[in-house]
Design a protein that fits this description.
The structure holds two protein chains of two kinds. Chain A has two helices and no strands. Chain A is mostly helical. Chain B is built from four helices and 39 strands. Classes of the chains: A mainly alpha, B mainly beta.
Chain lengths: 64, 623
């Protein structure tokens, strides 16, 4: 084996792709969901209504 | 005087050097032949060999001398009345046989190097034209040779790299054709023991012969006796003729040359590439850009080689007799790198030609790292000489020739045939890379075929959902739904209606496993004031949700202006995340791409030294 490290990396990448596709894993875990909480560009409240300047954040409580 | 070969008509007595010609049963004296100058040739009368399926025995030799060198022609009896000739010059062997070529009669001594001739129906390139004199002979020959007989010799290279020579003697043209051969190809046996090199030789002298310089009287060591033509006296800078006894002075080099201390000492012997070589000469040459050093190496069986060094880089170079393709060598294409006039500025030691300080040649270099192919055209010698070299590690040279602990300078900058380490690494891994890439894409394509999405919940078909500002318990709970099979992503699409301008609505809550009450947090921000503030919908994907019965429970977060808003939730299961694919693809490609970028950068740096730089932009050209 000429490039053992690269070969191992390639095998790991292929294995991960196959498994993640089969199991529905996402490399970024629940980022799609998490981003919707914390993304500053995705504000569901107008800035004037956000006293802390945050859009809420992940489990930061309800903004009522 | 016995004639050992039936086809010989001429012989030289090994005792008194008398030349005799056999006529029927009579012997006639043909003068006295000069004694052969001593040399380090491993061949001798009686040496046997085997070439192209035929055995032969060397029965005689002619020693020919021309203005800038000398060579031996061995007469080989192949049996059955066949005579062949084995030329020995600079460690090369040319095996040839007389051919019938009527066209040869029309060719005169005015032929020029580089022109083409048709002989015996073949196309030949003229390599060099020289007038040679027979200075000595030994053994038996198939024709009579007068002492000091003069002939014009036109050396030719065939279209297939074959060797040819046209000899013009007293108006008679004789054409010989054959091939160049390496020492090992001729399968010699019964070789002469070479003094100073062969341990079994009857050593009558040390590895080199010392004579005194006629100019200053200092001893001058001759290391390639009989094969070298000139040597530089290390005391007075005289160039001496080593082809004849007496070492006549034939020129001078600059006095400053003697102050040069070559990095490899002249006389050093070492094992390089599996063979023993002795450093016998040193040259410093320059073109209009830079100067470089060349060391001449000698081995009696293999001839001469060069070690060329520039900025700590080294190339091991051999001459290529019979080379006939400008930019191809051993089936490989070479790229033109440099074309300059090179001048020899300093010389030290011993050479197989009459070296001159200030000698100029037109030098053309072609590269295919780690190899370099060079052509030297000399107007003075009317000769084109090809040579091929391979890059060699400076430590290998150091180990071979510097046994006293001296270190060679470390290579600096890029060199024309320096191997590109990044390219080598890329070549070593590209098979694995393409295999991995193919497998990786195949896995993704196969998964795409299976990763179809199926709808598992649509609240529009399950009673509907809505947000009521006036309700005491604003919690929204969906109908339960079942997820079958293994774990898979869950795609949740939500839409809200009737949200007034400036209002907002978000659903914060969880996906709840009805059996275990395990929750997965989820948020559906259906208003986006950052960009899509007119739309009230949200798409969220939950990864790897296992099979089971689930429902959503949300706590709405809405503006007070939102009083009643219908909500539609659509849930689909399946599909795959492309982010996984792109991440893995990046992992597979990162190292190869890095190597290719480094390789490109390396090549760009190398070619910056060239006038034929393929990386130069048109702007650079204009400058």
């Amino acid at each position: 084996m000429k490039n053992p490290i690269y070969t191992i990396l390639a095998i790991l990448a292929c294995s991960y792709l196959g498994l993640s596709n089969l199991r529905g894993w996402n490399f970024f875990t629940s980022s799609a969901n998490r981003n919707s909480f914390s993304s500053t560009s995705y504000r569901y409240r107008p800035a004037i209504n956000t006293s802390s300047g945050s859009s809420g954040g992940w489990f930061s409580g309800f903004h009522k | 005087m016995p004639f050992r070969s039936s086809i010989a008509v001429f012989a030289v007595c090994e005792h008194c050097r008398s030349a005799v010609v056999r006529k029927d049963f009579q012997l006639e004296t043909f003068g006295v032949m000069a004694e052969l100058p001593p040399d380090l040739s491993p061949l001798q009368i009686g040496t046997k060999g085997y070439y192209a399926g035929r055995g032969f025995t060397l029965i005689g030799r002619l020693r020919l001398h021309w203005g800038d060198g000398s060579w031996s022609e061995w007469c080989a009896d192949f049996g059955g009345g066949t005579i062949g000739w084995i030329g020995e010059a600079m460690g090369f062997y040319m095996v040839s046989f007389q051919q019938t070529a009527p066209e040869a009669e029309r060719i005169d001594t005015m032929a020029r190097a580089g022109t083409r001739l048709i002989l015996a129906g073949q196309n030949w390139l003229v390599n060099d034209v020289k007038e040679a004199r027979c200075i000595a002979a030994e053994g038996e020959l198939p024709f009579a040779v007068a002492p000091n007989a003069v002939r014009t010799s036109i050396d030719l290279t065939g279209a297939d790299g074959g060797f040819g020579t046209l000899e013009i003697t007293g108006g008679q043209n004789t054409f010989y054709a054959g091939h160049y051969a390496q020492f090992e190809e001729l399968n010699f046996t019964e070789l002469r023991k070479v003094p100073g090199w062969d341990q079994q030789a009857d050593i009558t002298r040390h590895q080199s012969r010392a004579e005194n310089c006629p100019s200053c009287g200092a001893p001058v060591q001759i290391r390639a006796e009989g094969l070298s033509m000139s040597a530089v006296c290390g005391s007075c800078a005289s160039i001496l003729d080593t082809s004849k006894p007496g070492l006549a002075e034939i020129g001078r080099v600059m006095e400053t040359t003697l102050q040069i201390k070559p990095v490899l000492p002249i006389g050093a012997r070492g094992l390089l590439k599996g063979d023993t070589w002795e450093v016998i000469g040193f040259m410093r040459r320059k073109d209009k850009w830079c100067a470089w050093d060349e060391f001449l190496l000698f081995n009696p069986w293999l001839g001469f080689r060069y070690l060329v060094t520039f900025r700590g880089h080294w190339s091991f170079v051999r001459l290529l007799p019979g080379h006939h393709t400008a930019d191809r060598w051993e089936g490989q294409h070479f790229s033109l790198f440099a074309r300059e006039e090179a001048t020899t500025v300093n010389v030290l030691g011993e050479f197989y030609w009459r070296v001159r300080s200030g000698e100029k040649v037109q030098l053309t270099d072609y590269v295919r790292p780690p190899f370099v192919l060079s052509a030297e055209f000399s107007k003075v010698l009317n000769e084109v000489a090809w040579s091929g070299g391979e890059y060699i590690d400076h430590l290998e040279v150091q180990r071979a020739f510097l046994t006293d602990g001296t270190r060679l300078p470390y290579p600096n900058g890029r060199y024309l045939n320096e191997p590109n380490p990044h390219q080598e690494r890329w070549r070593a891994m590209r098979g694995t890379f393409f295999l991995a890439l193919g497998a990786y894409i195949l896995i993704q394509l196969l998964c795409l075929g299976f990763a179809t999405q199926t709808k598992v919940l649509d609240t529009a078909n399950a009673g509907g959902l809505s947000y009521q500002n006036t309700a005491t318990d604003k919690t929204i709970v969906t109908q339960p739904f079942t997820l079958a099979g293994g774990s898979a992503p869950l795609h949740v699409h939500s839409e809200a209606g009737m949200i007034p301008s400036g209002g907002y609505l978000a659903l914060k809550g969880s996906l709840v496993n009805a059996a275990t009450q395990q929750t997965t947090p989820i948020m559906l921000p259906m208003t986006n004031f950052a960009s899509h503030f007119e739309e009230h919908r949200s798409d969220v994907t939950l990864p790897a949700v296992p099979a089971g019965k689930y429902y959503f429970r949300f706590e709405p977060d809405a503006a007070t202006s939102v009083t009643n808003s219908p909500i539609r939730l659509t849930v689909q299961r399946g599909g795959l995340f492309w982010s996984n694919f792109w991440m893995g693809l990046a992992a597979i490609c990162l190292w190869p791409v890095w190597l290719l970028m480094r390789s490109w950068s390396f090549e760009k740096e190398r070619w910056m030294e060239s006038e034929f730089n393929p990386y130069a932009s048109s702007d650079d050209d204009d400058e």
